[in-house]
Amino acid sequence: MSNSGPQPDEMSLQQEQQIDAICGGFEAAWQAGTEPDIETHLPEDSGVRLRLLSELIQIDLERRLSSEPTVRLESYLARFF
Amino acid sequence: MRTANSGIGTLINWSASRFAHRRLGTAPRGLADEEDVVLSAFDSFLRAVDRERFSELEDRSDLWQILVMITERKAISARRKAPDAKRGGGKVVGETTDSDSHDGIDLGQLVGLEPTPEFSLQVTEEFERLMALLADDELREIAVARLEGFTNEDIAQRLNVTSRTVERRLNLIRRLWEQDQQDE
After folding, report:
1. In whole angstroms, what is the distance from residue B53 CA to residue B67 CA?
2. Which residues pair with A51 in a beta bridge?
3. Nearest by Cα to B69 from B181, B184, B163, B183
4. Domain segments of chain B: what residues?
5. ipTM field
6. pLDDT tens digits for A11-21?
């Protein structure tokens, strides 16, 4: 198994629901007008941590691109890897 | 329209035709009550026809495809459990012969066919049952908007969420519906 965690089609429904709930909280924070930290929504001991990180980065990047056209994916790589 | 020659297009045209009959008061006597239900089921499709947003419904992973496939499977299963059930004379959607029976539904085979009111009613019931499986209002709103033919971007804008969230939640909806089928 790779160190990237389970792929989407390998994840259980329960894991998908777990990821969805955390991402929902992350989106809600953006909707509330704050700029949430990815780190605070990323549990250390989760079996889907890297999959969740991927989802959170995609949301964060999409949100930031609407106001910061210069933000780049590379900045997340430097921050988390 | 791009979908005019597809099975989905057939369903749309059929429902639109019934809708026109209803509005003009020319529907055959005895069909009115049944058509109330049918029209309710296809109301979202009629709205989508108006917007000509059906191109994405050709995607086999789309929710409408899944809804029709689930209904078709149940109809086939019900017929197998009742081997002596009387079949209609015409070949119509929801009344496939044994040689046509398969786990999925080949929309290409539906070209030119007309869905029966019974099958449309089954779709309605299945739609309501599957929607009840979705745990929160936003999931249901995403499912309905997708069935209406809105794009992920449209839905994201409406709900003030990212497109990625819409895509992720659509995947979750598909998993929930597929899991329900496996549990039955």
Report:
1. 18
2. none
3. B181
4. 7-183
5. 0.89
6. 899 999 999 99
What's the rounded Cα separation, in Å, for the pair A52 and A5?
9
Identify all chain A residues contacting B155, using CB atoms and an 8 Å cutoff: none
> B109 and B100 in contact (C-beta within 8 Å)?
yes
Q: Is B110 helix (H, G, I), strand (E, B) or coil?
A: helix
Give the CA dihedral A13, A62, B64, B145, nearest 10 degrees: 110
Q: What is the dihedral of CA B52, B53, B59, B62, to 10 degrees?
A: -130
Interchain contact B165–A (C-beta under 8 A): yes
DSSP label of B84: T
A59–B171 C-beta distance less than 8 A: no
Q: How far apart are CA B160 and CA B149, in angstroms?
A: 18
Segment A45-73, tens digit of pLDDT: 778 999 999 999 999 999 999 888 899 98
Q: Are residues A48 and A16 in contact, defined by beta-carbon separation less than 8 angstroms?
A: no
Say which amino acid occupies B76: I
Q: Residue A52: closest CA among chain B residues belongs to which residue?
A: B168
Amino acid letter, residue A28: A
The burial class, CB within 10 Å (0-12 / 13-18 / 19+), for B173 is buried
Which residues of chain B neighbour A63 with C-beta distances below 8 Å?
A: 162
By the 8 A CB rule, do B142 and B155 touch? yes
pLDDT at B129 over 50: yes
